[in-house]
Amino acid sequence: MAVREEVYGFFIPSVTLIGIGAHKEIPARIRSLGGKKPLLVTDKGITAIGMTKQIADILKAEGMECVVYDETIPNPTDKNVADGVKVYKDNKCDSLITLGGGSSHDCGKGVGLVVANGGTIHDYEGVDKSTKAMPPYIAVNTTAGTASEMTRFCIITDTSRKVKMAIVDWRVTPGIALDDPLLMMGMPPALTAATGMDALTHSIEAYVSTIATPITDACAEKSIRLISKFLRRAVANGQDIEAREGMCYAQYMGGMAFNNASLGHVHAMAHQLGGFYDLPHGECNAILLPYVEEYNLISNIDRFCDMAEWLGADITGLSKRDAADACLAAIRKLSSDVGIPAGLIALGERYGKKVSEKDIPTMTANAQKDACGLTNPRCMSDAAVAAIYKAAL
């Protein structure tokens, strides 16, 4: 909490719908926002499993036409946004629905920003650069991790610089966020694990953030407890509806925490791995998380003791330092249990990418410019960032 004159904001969607069958309310809700012809932004994977058609058919049954843009890629790019803007304008759309995980939501947010404000997505890198409201917008979530369906964050890869642009703007917060565990039942174990560890990273970074508040602390605590309870179950059995719903709430509350307390150097560094190598964001976070938090540990050791307990560690009789170390061990154990690769080189091999030590200076320089690092609880030098990248290889 603040020790000087400072004002904190709290940003969430105006309406959030969470629960089994919530997706059936999409037509009525988009109408309630004034939308008549939405652009449905998604990806080929969602289309391949039939979910895009499922949502389009629900809209059609209610007499509503929608236009589909499903070219979003896992780390959405400036080109994705530009193409989506063209489809929106060419078809005279008046509203947005994003369907998927963070990639679809981020792409759709970028489309909305440019449609409403003009220019290109590059003009909005940074904090609150827009001046006009987004079109009517519903974000329909299909993964339990990014919380992009409810945040003011939009992460887009600048293909010319090979970096992820962090766009933080209260106007990109969706008007309505929708989380239906039924839409998450088909997530494969690896994606369930990656998105779940992303949610854990959000909650941990928000809890130790320099601008954490009692409100964000409460959200982070409940999120961490739920992830500890349900993530392993969701990975082990994707049809476990209780675990899926538990992870819906966990990732949403993690979003409430970081949407307002922001993040730290885990995300600042993971963004560079995504931009440079096109690696999956959640797994990059999971690998970097224990290394960055080990560095941060001395900044507020009591908070790491709290998180050790929430992650299920028995800290009875331990010194504060040993209890804080138990938090790091619990993070590593959860990551290992759900199948996250042990290091960045192994992660790269999984996806056919060659992660190399020679790229560390470039990624370090870019990570130090990332806005997420501003609220990291311990100041981090270039040498410290580079050392963590190297240790995580």
Keywords, please?
393 residues, alpha/beta, 3-stranded mixed sheet, 9 strands, globular
Commentary on this structure:
The protein has a 6-stranded parallel β-sheet with strand order 1-9-6-4-2-3, with helices on both faces. 50% of the residues lie in helices and 11% in strands. Helix 9 (265-277) packs across helix 14 (360-367). It has helices spanning 26-32, 44-48, 51-61, 78-90, 102-117, 189-207, 214-236, 241-261, 265-277, 281-296, 301-310, 320-337, 344-350, 360-367, 382-392, and strands spanning 15-18, 38-43, 67-72, 95-100, 126-127, 137-141, 153-158, 163-168, 176-179.
Task: Give a quick summary of the entry.
The chain is α/β, with parallel strands linked by helices and 393 residues long. Helix content is 50%, strand content 11%.
Give the quaternary arrangement of the chains: single chain
Which geometry do the CA atoms define?
globular
Report the sheet with the most strands, covering strand number, pairing sense and barrel closure: 6 strands, parallel
| Number of E strands | 9
Uncertain parts: none
How far the N terminus sits from the C terminus, by CA atoms, comes to: 35 Å
For the biggest β-sheet, the strand order reads 1-9-6-4-2-3
Average pLDDT over all residues? 96
Which percent band covers the strand fraction? 5-15%
Number of helices: 15
Overall radius of gyration? 20 Å
Strand-helix topology:
Blueprint: E1 15-18, H1 26-32, E2 38-43, H2 44-48, H3 51-61, E3 67-72, H4 78-90, E4 95-100, H5 102-117, E5 126-127, E6 137-141, E7 153-158, E8 163-168, E9 176-179, H6 189-207, H7 214-236, H8 241-261, H9 265-277, H10 281-296, H11 301-310, H12 320-337, H13 344-350, H14 360-367, H15 382-392
Parallel strand pairs: 1-9, 2-3, 2-4, 4-6, 5-8, 6-9
Antiparallel strand pairs: 7-8
Helix pairs in contact: 4-5, 6-7, 6-8, 6-10, 7-8, 9-10, 9-14, 10-12, 10-15, 11-12, 14-15
